[in-house]
Design brief:
heterotrimer, A: 568 residues, alpha+beta, Ubiquitin-like (UB roll), Rossmann fold, 6-stranded mixed beta sheet, 21% helix, B: 161 residues, Glutaredoxin, 2 domains, 4-stranded mixed beta sheet
Chain lengths: 568, 161, 450
């Protein structure tokens, strides 16, 4: 795939262990690489360094050289170059790897520093863990266990601060829990470019606040909750819903746009409670939009389809597949297939196979909005590029299926297979829809499912596994977080059976098996299997499509190869 | 925001003293406080707009520095130094004298709106402790007798108005 | 032996009858002659003279001024700024106030010479907000100097230009810390910057190379130009050159400011002879020799110091010469020259409570140890005085202070912990006895300090 250039490496020594790291790597990250934990609160790899929490204090030394000759000064006791240790502890987050840097994290002084900082952070902290949502993922809890003394010497009155402030529509603030690390302020300023948070007052009475009359309402506000190391900022949606240690984490992808922000879906006993970002330094760093965190609510939405229907009557899957097969074969030569940019690569491959078997081509429906320059792109379909790679489409989709409407009116199309889309929303009239026999596969009810002869309810992205190809041509996988709702069918076997039912080849309806076919048939995917696809995805070669009039503009880690298409 | 023309003129004069407009935050806040008596939220937003900042940037500054106030105070501002050298020479007694004279606890505005008495930290005149600032003027060696005398003077000036 | 005579260089005209703070008076007394001399010299030669003079910063840290200047990044292509630290805030220190009020042109001349030496085109005087008259006096003086081409675009017809603006603070001790001051000057909360990477000499004001110098330090520069670095270095003692303004406050007969060659006067001479000794019927108990953050000295304690030849000498508190190095060797510091004297009427727990209230109020709150530790110490000492005291509180105080010093972003960590560390170390008996002392003192109507 695409190789990254070799960085300039320097050797540093962490607690006696040598490691080569890229020059400039900070001590926290360098130590992590040799398995040494340097605890911290304010440091965040994707934000500027503020150095205020003082938890990452380390001892630092450099090899001794003669000031005049620059010759190394040897230590006769060890036979190695002498190390000049700085007596004053330094912060790891602002100490960058340089040749010969030595650090010590396991000395009595550093133990004492950490115990001191832990004690200080807790003197004015309410210690209300039993009612705190952060419990279980709280750095104060973790690090007081790891690095604290375990008892308190504080008998004075604690500071009193506001306990529950609505900072915005989605974020609740408890100032008493805040340790003033400033991560949220730096995030708003540096990443979200929405400078509304700040500290007022001073000293220990400093208080995080949103400017009165303004709100932390930007579409990235919940990232402040993610990066808050304590329980000060909590999600209003998730607050008091569930203890995090009961939740299962499943890797997923944000389907809002072609950015494909990497996510984690948190669920318990088949119910999803929240979605948070998953770090991918090539895609979304550690961020995701707020809007993508709400998407799990589609799983249990009222309009969710859960019953297979043939001509309006409940049916079994066998009956539905057979009915669809008969219907499509009887309309042979006059069948249209409408695929989806929201389908997975695997589903798109099978949709293409279905179209091939029916001797027709496929169209997709585009969804275009404004890109936000960060993690929502103009293309609101997550997988249009998957459709290009699988050969499902050759041309980029349009918002309206005008040619299909014309073909129906002309009597050239008698049956339509629709995967996940709504023909009405794509510009077809009720009259046009009434003229054709529709086979609909989808998750939620719409005008098309109402008009369809055969309706097969399928799974949402949270209930199945698959892959998407994002705007960078990075193929990324998502995994099944929760079982499908009763009655909904797994898309892949349904599509595979439809292909067979219309006389096409017998294809695997199981993901891993299907990937063997994908790898065999599609050159770009040849070296890949679903199981071995890395968590961070793989960049495919997008150059064959470079001239395509894609709609995306610049966003985090993405620069369009060609000038973005003008969209209306 | 109603500011005197003179204040506006001085505001426009001071901004170009700095290559970065944000630097004029403190000077503008001083000028506005001198003019209006305190920094209202309207003033915070006015300064932010004037200096092309977000209001929170200005509010952070206003609330950090004790000299900026967000509420009106008495017509006369009595600031008694609390810090060590003055305390050693009886600064606490001095402050109590003013409180008694005006029947007003420190930190509050007197009922007639005439004075606000405050304890402040070191005024950098430790050699003439205890010291008191009344408005812009420093008064040295303010023992209880001198506190009484200064209070009487304030009361007399107030009567004249 | 009588106490040595004052040597007034910086304070030569302070309190002089008939001496006014206007340009004409200053010029009559030879003012701006040194600026004329300086602009005829090469800037590098001026820096060399300052280096040779051995001048150490008078703001508190005592860092050699010439070294500070030579660390400035002159290759960045960015402008170099001079920021004058006139945010005199260290309790016990009150020297800059008199220079600014009575002899502002001396400072301006020092600024202009230093600016010329360092190719500075823009200087800012950051003055305490609590000195509104001082700010006006400086502004007037700058205007006079500008009108006389001593400040402004073309100084003395040389083509060299430098502007000075006065910038008022608003009541924050932390602005005395140079990077906090820079942040404040940039219009932000004065959170001191992390060093590395933000050393003012490289990444200072507006991320440009910046020199931050104390008022008194810059005044000395004028006199260094006058005498030459070598001659100046002969004043005072080696490595502690020039004169120092000692500000004495607290329990002495004659508090005030006194200018001496550094190290030529001992603490005992200063307090007993120059300042007239303790108040009637009182005895000296303790002295803070360099501003309230300096570690306290207890009268009666002795210090054994090593001489250069390997022998040692023992000093009492009264024996200590007021120079940077000896004070440091005695475990405290010359700091900003603020000498605060306490007599036997003072209870040390209450004095510390007063100091702790100051530092808790002034902690900016940026970094954890100082933010939480300074307030915790204040809460402990306030509780001891106003609520209940425990015999173990002294030990707890010291332990809290030990968790702050050396671990913070700026030197405020030391400033707020040194008083507690030294008070408890030297007056531990008083802290242990305080629960009992307090009961006895309740009715005695003793001095209120907190």
């Amino acid at each position: 795939m695409i190789a990254t250039p070799k960085p300039d490496l320097v050797t540093v020594n962490v607690d006696g262990k040598e490691i080569a790291v890229p020059k400039g790597t900070n001590v926290i990250e360098a130590a992590r690489l040799v398995g040494v934990d340097v605890p911290y609160y304010c440091y965040h790899p994707k934000l500027s360094i503020s150095g205020n929490c003082r938890m990452c204090l380390i001892e630092m030394g450099m090899p001794a050289v003669d000031p005049a000759t620059k010759a190394p000064i040897m230590d006769p006791a060890t036979g190695k170059q002498k190390i000049n240790w700085i007596p004053r502890p330094q912060i790891g987050c602002a100490t960058n790897a340089s040749p010969g840097l030595h650090i010590r994290t396991n000395t009595p002084q550093i133990k004492d520093c950490r115990e001191g900082v832990m004690e200080f952070l807790l003197v004015n902290h309410p210690l209300d863990c039993p009612i705190c949502d952060q419990a279980g993922e709280c750095k104060l809890q973790e690090q007081s266990t790891g690095y604290g003394r375990g008892y308190s010497r504080f008998i004075e009155h604690k500071n009193v601060k506001p306990k529950r402030t609505q900072l915005g529509p989605r974020v609740t603030l408890d100032d008493e829990r805040c340790i003033l690390c400033s991560r949220c302020i730096r995030f708003c300023k540096e990443v979200a470019k929405d400078d509304v948070l700040g500290f007022v007052d001073r000293g220990s009475y400093s208080t995080l606040t949103c400017y009165p009359g303004k709100a932390l309402a930007n579409n990235y506000s919940l990232n402040t909750v993610d990066i808050c190391p304590v329980g000060a900022l909590t999600s209003t949606d998730f607050r008091f819903k569930m203890r995090v240690w009961f939740l299962k984490q499943t890797n997923s992808i944000d389907t809002e746009s072609s950015v494909g922000a990497n996510t984690v879906v948190w669920s318990r006993e088949g119910v999803i409670y929240r979605i948070t970002p998953r770090q991918n330094d090539g895609v979304n760093d550690t961020w995701m939009p707020d809007s993508g965190r709400d998407l799990y609510k589609i799983v249990r939405a009222n309009d969710r389809l859960a019953v297979i229907k043939v001509n309006g009557a409940d049916a079994s899957l066998d009956e539905a597949v057979n009915a669809a097969g008969r219907l499509l074969q009887s309309a042979a030569g006059a069948v249209a297939v409408i695929g989806s940019g929201r389908s997975s690569v695997e589903e798109q491959f099978l949709t293409r196979k279905l179209a091939d078997a029916l001797g027709t081509s496929t169209q997709l429906v585009s969804r275009v909005g404004q890109g936000d320059g960060l993690l929502i792109s103009a293309d609101r379909n997550p997988n249009v590029r998957g459709a290009l790679v699988t050969g499902l489409i050759k041309d980029l989709p349009t918002a309206k299926l005008t040619s299909l409407g014309a073909a129906i009116d002309a009597g050239k199309v008698k049956a339509v297979v629709v995967v996940g889309e709504d023909l009405a929303a794509a510009g077809l009239s009720a009259t046009q829809m009434a003229k054709v026999a529709i086979v609909y596969l989808g998750t939620h009810a719409n005008a098309t499912s109402t008009a369809a002869r055969v309706v097969i309810p399928t799974l949402t992205v949270f209930e199945k596994s698959g892959t998407f190809v994002n705007q960078q041509f990075r193929i990324q996988k998502y995994l099944k977080a929760v079982p499908g709702v009763a009655g909904a069918q797994d898309d892949l076997p349904v599509l595979a059976r439809l292909v067979a039912a219309v006389g096409g080849p017998i294809l695997a309806g199981e993901l891993h098996a299907l990937w063997r076919t994908l790898a065999a048939e599609i050159a770009a995917l040849a070296p890949i299997s679903f199981a071995t696809l890395p968590e961070a995805g793989l960049l495919l070669d997008g150059t064959p499509y470079a001239a395509g009039p894609f709609v995306e503009t610049e966003s985090l880690h993405f620069n369009p190869a060609a000038k973005p298409a003008v969209t209306t | 925001m109603k500011l005197k023309p003179e204040t506006l003129r001085r505001i426009d004069e001071v901004i170009p003293h700095y290559p970065v407009k944000r630097s004029a935050t403190l000077p503008l806040l001083h000028l506005i406080q001198e003019d209006a008596g305190y920094i209202s939220s309207e003033a915070v937003e006015w300064v932010a707009a004037k200096l092309e900042l977000q209001p929170i940037n200005v509010l952070e500054v206003v609330t950090f520095y004790p000299m900026f106030r967000q509420k009106p105070i008495g017509r006369r501002h009595i600031k008694v130094c609390r810090t060590l050298s003055c305390a050693l020479m009886g600064g606490y007694k001095t402050c109590e004298s003013f409180e008694k004279e005006f029947n007003t606890p420190r930190g509050e505005v007197s009922a007639d709106g005439e004075v606000t008495i405050e304890f402040v930290e070191c005024l950098a005149s430790c050699g003439t402790a205890p010291v008191v600032m009344i408005d812009d003027d420093l008064h040295e060696k303010v023992d209880c007798a001198k506190a009484k005398q200064l209070s009487d003077q304030i009361k007399a000036e107030s009567k004249k108005r | 032996m009588p106490a040595p005579q004052q040597r007034r260089i910086i304070f030569r005209h302070i309190d002089e009858p008939g001496y006014t703070n206007d340009l004409a008076c200053y010029v009559r007394h030879g003012g701006y002659e040194m600026l004329k001399k300086a602009v005829a010299m090469a800037p590098a030669a001026l820096i060399e003279e300052v280096k040779k003079s051995g001048l150490r910063g008078r703001g508190g840290a005592g860092f050699p001024c010439g070294v500070k200047w030579s660390l400035v990044d002159r290759k960045s292509g960015k402008p170099i700024y001079l920021v004058v630290n006139a945010d005199e805030s260290e309790p016990g220190t009150f020297k800059d106030r008199y220079i600014i009020h009575q002899d502002p042109h001396q400072l301006i001349e020092g600024i202009m010479i230093s600016s010329f030496a360092n190719n500075v085109k823009q200087a800012y005087i950051y003055i305490r907000g609590e000195m509104p008259h001082g700010a006006r006096i400086l502004e007037k003086a700058i205007a006079e100097a500008r009108a006389a081409n001593l400040v402004g675009p073309n100084i003395l017809g040389t083509g060299y230009g430098c502007e000075i603006y006065v910038h008022r603070g608003a009541g924050a001790y932390i602005c005395g810390e140079e990077t906090g001051l820079i942040e404040s000057l940039e219009g932000k909360r004065p959170y001191p910057r992390i060093k590395p990477p933000y050393f003012p000499a490289v990444l200072g004001l507006y991320q440009c190379p910046t020199i931050v110098n104390n008022v008194e330090t810059l005044c000395h520069v004028k006199h260094i130009v006058e005498m030459g670095g070598d001659a100046y270095a002969k004043i005072g003692t080696p490595n502690n050159t020039g004169t120092r303004i000692l500000c004495v406050s607290g329990h002495v007969q004659k508090p005030g400011y006194y200018e001496y060659e550094v190290g030529t006067i001992t603490l005992g001479e200063l307090l007993n002879e120059v300042c007239g000794g303790p108040l009637p019927g009182r005895k000296f108990k303790a002295v803070i020799p360099g501003g309230s953050s300096a570690k306290i000295l207890r009268f009666g304690e002795t210090f054994t110091l090593k001489n250069k030849d390997g022998s040692s000498r023992t000093l009492t508190v009264e024996d200590i010469p007021m120079d940077f190095d000896t004070l440091a060797a005695c475990g405290t510091m010359g700091g900003s020259g603020g000498v605060i004297v306490m007599d036997d009427s003072v209870n040390m727990v209450e004095a510390l409570a007063n100091i702790n209230a100051f530092y808790a109020h002034e902690s900016c709150g940026q970094c954890t140890p100082c933010r939480e530790g300074s307030l915790w110490m204040k809460k402990i000492t306030t509780r001891m005085v106003h609520d209940h005291a425990r015999t173990e509180d002294g030990a707890l105080l010291k332990s809290v202070a030990d968790q702050i010093a050396g671990r913070t972003i700026c030197a405020f960590g030391e400033a707020c912990s040194w008083p507690t560390q030294s008070f408890v170390a030297k007056f531990g008996d008083e802290f242990r006895a305080y629960p009992e002392t307090k009961k006895a003192a309740k009715s005695a109507g003793t001095l209120e300090l907190v």
